């Protein structure tokens, strides 16, 4: 299969904006979503195996990478997970995929969670990497979590404070955030780091990431609380994986919290910190093969 970096970057219109994606492979469709402060490139080490078994759509979230970067809105609705999930639903539908699997990390996993709620009929099975539900993480924040995830509380400060500081040196921001986790920058390929750094220099990138987090601390919580009150749950089979050296598993009951909002949940910790697709790609692939149903 063609390596991820060798595939052309496609720009596809969905939900009124342009999304950047790389598409490859064969077999049933799978949507791949990345986290902060990265792009779809996080899947490059897993790509050769994934694309032997699935037609993979690796896409940059709005506000990230080479996807469109809508302006900020007063209520942050333009970057709500509901809108970002609609991006993905319309993207996949436009590519001819009415039903698909989802594999998502970090911020992309929060989009995937909302996708599985708002577009439940489209998601066959879903694997989420290193998150607990957003509402529970905010409501259960303690000092240890706040210190490890300080950016959750810094990026939501009113504009233009965080944007201005990030824009002074986007590559420094990338290297500081990613390098500040256990293991530092040693986990990341030079080509991937260069791509993350390039995208951090793009106009609107700082606004996009800040608005993503501001939405999660405001309008997304409103949607989550309303949904829980109405009884909404993830109906698709859900597998959750987290890093045994990361902050999520240390501070939250990952399986318990997901079991409270989803019908069928399984999962485990892997020997990594936060960036599972790049730190332990083979372990994630082994879990994916068992959960999504392929051999080798």
Q: Main traits of this protein?
A:
single chain; 296 residues; alpha/beta; Rossmann fold; eight-stranded mixed β-sheet; 15 helices; 8 strands; globular
Describe this structure in words.
- The chain has 15 helices and 8 strands.
- It is α/β, with parallel strands linked by helices and 296 residues long.
- It has a single domain, classed as Rossmann fold.
- Helix 2 packs across helix 3 and helix 8 crosses helix 9.
- The overall pLDDT, averaged over residues, is 97
Q: Please report the total strand number as a whole number.
A: 8
Q: Any idea of the CATH class?
A: Alpha Beta
- Mind describing the biggest β-sheet? 8 strands, mixed
Protein name: Epoxide hydrolase
Keywords: Hydrolase
Domain AB hydrolase-1: 28-174
EC number: 3.8.1.3
Summed up, what is this model?
The chain is an alpha/beta fold and 296 residues long.
List the helices and strands and how they pair.
Elements: E1 10-14, E2 17-25, E3 29-33, H1 47-53, E4 55-59, H2 81-94, E5 100-105, H3 106-118, E6 123-129, H4 134-139, H5 143-148, H6 151-154, H7 161-168, H8 170-179, H9 190-199, H10 205-216, H11 219-230, E7 238-243, H12 247-251, H13 254-259, E8 265-270, H14 276-279, H15 281-293
Parallel strand pairs: 3-4, 3-5, 5-6, 6-7, 7-8
Antiparallel strand pairs: 1-2, 2-4
InterPro entries: AB_hydrolase_1 (IPR000073), AB_hydrolase_fold (IPR029058)
EC number: 3.8.1.3
Enzyme class: hydrolase
């Amino acid at each position: 299969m063609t390596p991820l970096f060798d595939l052309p970057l496609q720009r596809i219109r969905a939900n009124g904006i342009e999304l950047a994606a790389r598409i490859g492979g064969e077999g049933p469709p799978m949507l791949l979503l990345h986290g902060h402060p990265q792009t779809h490139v996080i899947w490059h080490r897993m790509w050769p195996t994934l694309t032997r078994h699935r037609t993979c759509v690796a896409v940059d979230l709005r506000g990230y990478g080479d996807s469109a970067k809508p302006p900020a809105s007063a209520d942050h609705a333009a970057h709500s997970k509901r809108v970002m999930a609609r991006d993905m639903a319309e993207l996949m539908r436009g590519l001819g995929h009415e039903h698909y699997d989802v594999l998502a990390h970090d911020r992309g996993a929060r989009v995937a969670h909302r996708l599985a709620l708002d577009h439940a009929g489209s998601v066959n099975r879903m694997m989420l990497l290193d998150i607990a539900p957003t509402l529970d993480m905010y409501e259960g924040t303690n000092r240890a979590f706040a210190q490890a995830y300080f950016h959750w509380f810094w990026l939501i400060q009113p504009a233009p404070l965080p944007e201005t500081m990030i824009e002074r040196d986007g590559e420094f921001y990338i290297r500081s955030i990613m390098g500040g986790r256990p293991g530092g920058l040693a986990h990341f390929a030079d080509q991937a780091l260069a791509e993350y750094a390039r995208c951090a220099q793009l106009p609107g990138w700082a606004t996009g990431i800040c608005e993503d987090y501001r939405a999660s601390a405001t309008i997304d919580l409103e949607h989550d609380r309303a949904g829980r009150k109405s009884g909404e749950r993830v109906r698709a089979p859900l597998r959750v994986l987290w890093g045994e050296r990361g902050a999520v598993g240390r501070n939250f009951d990952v399986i318990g919290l997901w079991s409270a909002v989803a019908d069928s949940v399984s999962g485990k910790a892997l020997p990594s910190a936060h960036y599972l697709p790049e730190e332990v790609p083979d372990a994630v692939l082994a879990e994916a093969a068992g959960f999504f149903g392929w051999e080798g």
